[in-house]
Specification:
Four Helix Bundle (Hemerythrin (Met), subunit A), single chain, mainly alpha, binds fe (ii) ion, 5 helices
Length: 156
């Protein structure tokens, strides 16, 4: 039932389309390089991470990597590569500031673009061809943890 499979994965496909457009936007801000462009890039990366990216990464890690590796251990290296790139995206998005923006924006855009292309061309086609209807339903039934604690301890 390819149509159903496309439906269950369509949120991820849609977010990948957004990720490719966002990576291009960030790359052009980094290339432009003015203080204002870099500040805008930093603001956009932080906002994107909080609004969408962290939840997207968690969904892939918790609903897709495990079942895919259980189907065949040969998928382990692909999932390791993708997970490693998730770590790099998180690391940049949670530490970027104006002083590191020239290198960090360029790296973030490059990693996000290349990562998303691999997921669209290799990773999601494998998921769509192998997953059971129940495993695909679990993709829709997922609540991510917040990007940061709802309340921060005051130390008192
Ligand atoms: Fe990913
Ligand atoms: Fe993704």
């Amino acid at each position: 039932m390819p149509d159903d499979r496309r439906t269950q994965l369509q949120k991820l496909h849609r977010e990948h389309d957004e990720a490719l457009a966002f990576a291009a936007q960030i790359a052009s801000l980094a290339a432009e390089g003015s203080d204002a462009s870099l500040a805008e890039g930093v603001r956009l990366v932080r906002e994107y991470y909080d609004r969408e990216l962290e939840a997207h990464l968690q969904l892939e890690e918790q609903r897709l990597f495990g079942p895919l590796i259980r189907y065949d251990k040969s998928h382990f290296s692909l999932c390791m590569r993708l997970g490693n790139e998730h770590g790099k995206l998180r690391s940049i998005a949670t530490s970027i500031e104006q002083a590191t923006a020239p290198d960090d924006l360029r790296a973030f855009a490059q990693i996000l673009n290349d990562h998303t292309v691999v997921e669209e061309q290799e990773f999601l086609p494998l998921v769509a061809s192998l997953f059971t209807p129940e495993e695909l339903d679990a993709v829709l039934d997922f609540s991510p943890l917040p990007t940061r604690p709802a309340s921060v301890a005051t130390g008192r």
